[in-house]
Amino acid sequence: MSRRTLVISDTDLHGFSCGVNALKALRDSGVDADIYSHFSTNPSEPASTPSGLALLVQSLGEYDLYILDIPVDARNPRAYIDALVSHARHKGRVIWMDHHGHSPWVVEELKKNGVLVAVYQTAYDIALAVPRMYRKSDSWYERWALLGAAADFDESVKERVSAELEVAVAEYLDPVYKSRLVELARALGLEAYAEHIKVNGQPGWFARAVAEKGIEPEQVIEAARQIGKPLLVPRYSIAGDVVYTTELPPVGLAWKTAWKLCALTGAKVAVLPAYNPRANQYSVIIARYWRADDSVTSAIEEYVGRKFGGRQVIGHPGARSVPLVSQAEIDDIPAIARELSDMLASKAHAQSRLASVSYA
């Protein structure tokens, strides 16, 4: 008797698109598959998912697992790796698919101990990984992958993501998905699923509904637009290619606020404060607009290294969060914005001069 297959994906909107695509592709290929629907993780905090994965996998019975878009827990990689390896040895296959950067030793450790590993370069590619594995080429999968990649600000698809889709996903669908999922399910006529979501508070039931019913991404976006409200932005100022504010955005919405400030103004970088009530920690967010070119990323990395070299900076290249010593440091944000603007202008000028040099 063959084992059932269980899909486990991240709880943010990109992870949701990965899970939906994987579940539908597996079922359409005759695989007895389901998606894990009881993650004890708040979908507004996908970063906490890796720490819970080890405990989850240890609790599971004999399943073949597809684990998508859940990076190795940086705080405790050994527990994460050991849980996957133990399952692969004693309970069923483990297919681990991810697109986050990892140390080579992590990937090799998984591979040599029986975990099937597939590492992808982009959010778009991992969202299509399982459909491609089963040779599913329906545009339904591609459109869900594009939506998930847009939610993840995947630069590989920026030429294919219209401004309309960008706004619809980032401003309407993503916030509604995170905080009003029951309403979204009901707006789509998924009353039975909505009751499960209401009881469990988790997005797995919604993913199962979308896959089972073959719901189009455009339907979900339109329902979210009807439910949601535009993200309000604080008062802001502009220094060259940098938009900045010293007003704190709502908790949990700093990165989305940075995105909207750039989208509204055409700025390449946003600088703004953020507050984490759990850690009682203020920070400054320095975020490149996802449509800006790579030179902006290098400028941000150089600036952050020079300005905050002694602090524990977190985030991705071009999207950094720097802890502040005190709330009073928020007053330094205008100076940070001007300094960063000057650096961007200087680099652009240097590149322009280099491009104009004639070697004839």
Please characterize this protein's 3D structure.
- With 360 residues, the chain is an alpha/beta fold.
- 49% of the residues lie in helices and 15% in strands.
- The protein has 15 helices and eleven strands.
- The chain has a six-stranded mixed beta sheet with strand order 6-7-8-9-11-10, sandwiched between helices. It has a five-stranded parallel beta sheet with strand order 2-1-3-4-5.
- The radius of gyration is 22 Å and the shape is globular.
- The model is unreliable at 40-48 (pLDDT under 50).
The separation of the N and C termini measures 73 Å
Query: What's the total helix number?
Result: 15
Mean pLDDT: 89
Strand content: 15-25%
Rg of Cα set: 22 Å
Q: Catalogue the unreliable spans.
A: 40-48
Query: Roughly what percent helix?
Result: 40-55%
Question: What's the shape?
Answer: globular
How many E strands? 11
Strand order of the largest sheet: 6-7-8-9-11-10
Largest sheet: 6 strands, mixed
The secondary-structure element order is: EHEHEHEHEHHHHHHHHEEHEEHEEH
Structural class: alpha/beta
